[in-house]
Every structure is written in C-alpha cells, then in structure tokens.
C-alpha cells in the first residue's frame, strides 16, 4: 500500500488517470463494426442509431442520457442533425469517415420525417458536402 499511494498520486498529478479534456465518443467506424453500404434512411437508422436512440427514437436514460429524436424541435433545421452526425456530440460518435454524403442525407431525412417529426424540407447530399470538414484522406 505504501508503494501504491505515491504511484497513484504521481499518476493523478501527471494527468494519466484523468480523462482527456478533448474526450469524444469513439469514431463510428469502430462502433459500426464494418462497412456500411445501405443508402436507405430506415436501414441506416436501424444499423447505427437505434441501439442508443431506441427503436421508437425516444432516447434513453441510464449510464448516459441519450436524447430523443422523436418530436425533437432541434431537427427543424436540417443543418443541425447533419452537423451532429458528421462531427459527433457528447457520447455520440462521429460518422464523417464512415458515411458518405448521400447516406447522411438519407438518414437525416428519415429521422426528420418519422417518429412524430414532420420536417419536409429534405437535406441533399450537396448540403452535407457543404458542412463536411475535409479530412487528410479526402485531400489526397
């Protein structure tokens, strides 16, 4: 025990036991477990979103709070879910390297027109491309 306390104290002081200030959810590529090929919004929702946001999109509360997508007024602007899907938010992983622009548009349009949401101004792949931050892989 005498040895453990100084090591623990040194680790805490060095910051090795503290979470990174830049902590973000894992990349979606690691969460998805393989390539995503569907361009159908409902299928993408079932594959990628339903596990956390639930089948009814009402979210969940437990070890984390997963926001409801059902009846969510933040979805009124199509740009908001596009940004969140591309970049992640809180515990949600980012999908910028996993989904293409057409897949993200299909997923956003599905969520915005289902689960009690009635936002009919569709998002196009070009809208997603305008929000996407280029990655080093995209610049090659």
Descriptive keywords:
mainly alpha, Cytochrome Bc1 Complex, Chain D, domain 2, two-stranded antiparallel sheet, 6 helices, 2 strands, globular, disordered N terminus, Cyt_c-like_dom_sf, signal
Note down, in words, how this protein is organized.
By secondary structure, the chain is mainly α. The chain has a single domain (21-131), classed as Cytochrome c-like domain (Cytochrome Bc1 Complex, Chain D, domain 2). 41% of the residues lie in helices and 3% in strands. It has a two-stranded antiparallel ribbon with strand order 1-2. A hairpin with a 3-residue loop joins strand 1 (60-61) and strand 2 (65-66). Helix 5 packs across helix 6. The protein is globular, with a radius of gyration of 19 Å. The model is unreliable at 3-25 (pLDDT under 50). Pfam families: Cytochrome_CBB3. Residues 1-25 form the signal peptide. This is Cytochrome c.
How are the elements arranged and paired?
Blueprint: H1 4-14, H2 28-32, H3 41-53, E1 60-61, E2 65-66, H4 79-87, H5 101-112, H6 125-131
Antiparallel strand pairs: 1-2
Keywords: Heme, Iron, Metal-binding, Signal
Organism: Rhizosaccharibacter radicis
Pfam families: Cytochrome_CBB3 (PF13442)
User: Can you summarize the main beta sheet?
Assistant: 2 strands, antiparallel
CATH A-level architecture: Orthogonal Bundle
Helix and strand element order: HHHEEHHH
> What is the strand arrangement across the widest sheet?
1-2
Structural class: mainly alpha
Question: Which residues form runs of ≥5 with pLDDT under 50?
Answer: 3-25
CATH hierarchy class name: Mainly Alpha
- CATH superfamily annotation: Cytochrome c-like domain
Domain Cytochrome c: 36-115
Keywords: Heme, Iron, Metal-binding, Signal
Protein name: Cytochrome c
Pfam families: Cytochrome_CBB3
């Amino acid at each position: 025990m005498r040895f453990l306390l100084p090591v623990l104290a040194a680790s805490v002081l060095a910051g090795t036991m503290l979470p990174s200030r830049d902590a973000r959810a894992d990349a979606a590529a690691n969460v998805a477990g393989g390539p995503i090929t569907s361009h159908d919004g409902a299928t993408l929702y079932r594959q990628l979103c339903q596990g956390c946001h639930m089948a009814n999109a009402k979210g969940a509360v437990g070890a984390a709070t997963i926001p409801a997508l059902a009846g969510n007024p933040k979805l009124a602007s199509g740009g908001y879910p596009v940004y969140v899907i591309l970049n992640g938010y809180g515990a949600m992983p980012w999908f910028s390297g996993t989904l293409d622009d057409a897949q993200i548009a299909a997923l956003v349009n599905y969520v915005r027109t289902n689960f009690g949401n009635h936002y009919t101004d569709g998002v196009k792949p070009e809208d997603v491309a305008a929000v996407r931050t280029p990655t080093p892989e995209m610049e090659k």
